[in-house]
Design brief:
Length: 121
């Protein structure tokens, strides 16, 4: 079994330090979420919780996952990287491919992602 640490809901700068610690402690990888649009208030209930509230605060950091992978790869030596969610439909294909390719080079291996087209947890 592989064990990954998630950067979901973390301050962007803290995620770098947590990744460095995960690398030193022997974790297998880092999982990075993605959100393109994050509204301050929701007009409809969030569909993935019983009470309809989302699991994060309105102003939670959602850094670009490929930039994060590149940054974390430069301060770690053995971690693998995966996006927990990636919304390719919200980006132009050329820019997405360029970002993913650059991250893969910096991360010492292929990029892996879970692609989604809509709202997911």
């Amino acid at each position: 079994m592989r064990v990954y640490v998630s950067t979901a809901f973390l301050d962007t700068r803290e995620a770098i330090e947590i990744a460095r610690a995960a690398d030193e402690l022997g974790y297998d990888g880092i999982a990075i979420p993605d959100h393109v649009v994050n509204l301050e208030t929701l007009q409809t209930p969030y569909p993935y919780t019983k009470d309809g509230s989302r699991r994060w605060e309105a102003f939670t950091d959602w850094p670009d996952p490929w930039v994060m992978i590149g940054a974390i790869a430069l301060v770690t030596t053995r971690l693998r990287f995966v996006t927990t969610v990636y919304l390719p439909a919200m980006r132009d294909p050329y820019s997405a491919a360029k970002s993913i390719g650059t991250a893969a080079v910096l991360a010492r291996g292929p990029a892996r992602t879970r692609r989604r087209g809509g709202l997911v947890p």
